[in-house]
Amino acid sequence: MKTVLASFIFFTRLPFWRITNVDARYFSHVVDYWPLVGWLTGGITAGTLYLSALVFPLHIAILTAFLVRVLITGALHEDGLADFFDGFGGGTTRDRILSIMKDSHIGTYGVISLIFYYLLLTATVSCFPVPMVLAIIFCADTWSKFSASMVVFMLPYARTAVDAKNKTVYIKPGIINVLIAFAAGALPLVCIPPVYLLSAVTSYLTAICIILFIKKKINGYTGDCCGAAFLICELMFFISTLIIYRLTCI
């Protein structure tokens, strides 16, 4: 139970830490329940969009919803995305890539990645009718967190605990924990028509491509890689769903 609580404490800025004291050792397993955290973040994002859409135009409601998610997570994943692109965009060697990703300053690649990420995100999500987009946001959040968690399952950590930015090294989940993460990530998919399950496949394959890329470049992963993988997989989920939506509506 404390491992679940550690996941909510680690991946959000909500005061779950007030419930009880959680020992540091539990934070090594937070990725196991990352998709479960998606039930909260995805649900709040979808709920905020619904309420905002009652008052504002859809594109403003979408920006408001994802702004709320950023506040809930403390921009943890966006920080990872920026550092990921700074590192792999500006680094040419393993040591240089890791050094850039650890640097707290944001560079050109990081800024550009965040700008284009949110431009693509808002443009894509705004193409769906509100009832449909609520389910898609919820499903994309939970499933993409599961897809991104495969980074930890398939690769070793690229640094040591001493060198880690948050001083936490995720422990590789066992098969049982992977199945739990899969169930937490996949169960919300019942909210969307079966044809859109192809988007889940696209999201997962995107995670595999990211894993192969970072394995080739640094032969391991960092926390930034996990955050970036989540946002990229989620964006591919949205884009794939939009393609299917447009094709099936013609």
Radius of gyration from the CA trace?
Answer: 17 Å
Strand-residue proportion: under 5%
Structural class: mainly alpha
Q: Average pLDDT value?
A: 92
The termini sit apart by 48 Å
The helix count comes to: 10
- Extract low-pLDDT stretches: none
Shape annotation: globular
Largest sheet: none
SS elements, strand count = 0
Helix content: 55-70%
What's the structural blueprint in terms of helices and strands?
Layout: H1 2-11, H2 34-53, H3 58-73, H4 76-90, H5 94-102, H6 108-125, H7 130-154, H8 175-186, H9 197-218, H10 223-249
Give the gist of this structure.
With 250 residues, this protein is an all-alpha fold. Helices cover 70% and strands 0% of the residues.
What does this structure look like?
By secondary structure, the protein is mainly alpha-helical. It contains 10 helices and no strands. It has helices spanning about 1-10, 35-55, 60-75, 75-90, 95-100, 110-125, 130-155, 175-185, 195-220, 225-250. The longest helix is centred in the last third of the chain and has 27 residues, at about 225-250. The radius of gyration is 17 Å and the shape is globular.
